[in-house]
Amino acid sequence: MNDEPSARFEAVYRETYGRLTAYAVRRCDSPQDAADVVAEVFTVAWRRLDDLPQGDEAVLWLYGVARKVVANHRRGELRRQARSAPLDAELTALYGDSPERGAELAAIGEAFRSLSDDDRELLSLVAWEGLSRQEIATALGLSRNAVRIRLYRARRRLARALAEAGVHLTSRSRLAPAGRSL
Fold first, then answer.
1. Residue limits of the HTH luxR-type domain (predicted)?
2. How far is CA 12 from CA 8, 21, 42, 49, 87, in A?
């Protein structure tokens, strides 16, 4: 194994990590998002090590990569928000616009968005698309039992996120539109 590429990458990483982290922190909404951006930048740098310029030009090249990664990250956030927009709209229809309900609705939306993409997808397929466990299993390439287990866990994580957000549900039906169950 040739250690030269590894040593070069480590040197560039040590020299540029702080500057790239500061760059990302100033452009992202959270430190976690900034950390994701920096990790992706260095993943690209490793994959394209042969394209990485030598010397002082390396950090400039990495800034260019970081700019694109931040843009991709923002587009991803917009897609996630767009995917949750129907949920937000339906919750608004269920709860109305009173200040109390608005705060609860915001907390519910935030709790839902705090779930992993996989959990949100499972819950959405059941609640909003009306798919059965078997249909979800077919769509996701999983067994029906795997869907049942994952759905159970996703519901528990949602319940935990709702409890942490101070939303106390009196019945499971409050989160489901008429005629649908979670």
1. 112-169
2. 6, 14, 10, 10, 44
